[in-house]
Amino acid sequence: MKVNELMAKNVVSVSPDESTSLAARLLYRHNIGSLPVCSTDGKLRGIVTDRDIVLRCVAAESDPERTPVREIMSRAPISANPEDDVRLAAEIMAAHQIRRLPVTDNGKLIGMLSLGDISKTHSYNMEASRALSEISLNIKKR
CATH number for the domain including 119? Predict the structure, then answer.
């Protein structure tokens, strides 16, 4: 099965120039833990997570209203191709300890694939479980 068959196509994203507080509100409103950061041409530029906001903005005593997302986002995000096999995507997620994987086509964001998306397909329960297990084990080691 290909990534484009399981990925979410309606993805909430944020611009690098938007405020960190807007990113936090979007995460809260959509009950998600990460947002792709895209330029006006739709190119994926980074990822901002709830953890980035807490550690790189709030804990650093920066003002979330005045701190642009570009200052706290993770750059050079890992992504998948829509034609990639879901097993490969699960391996990428496990190797990089991420639960949500942006899907890009020629650098433009076209979707997001989560471990939850993978686990909904009974054919890939094992891959999703293994990826989550590896992510969880690596988090405990930190």
Answer: 3.10.580.10
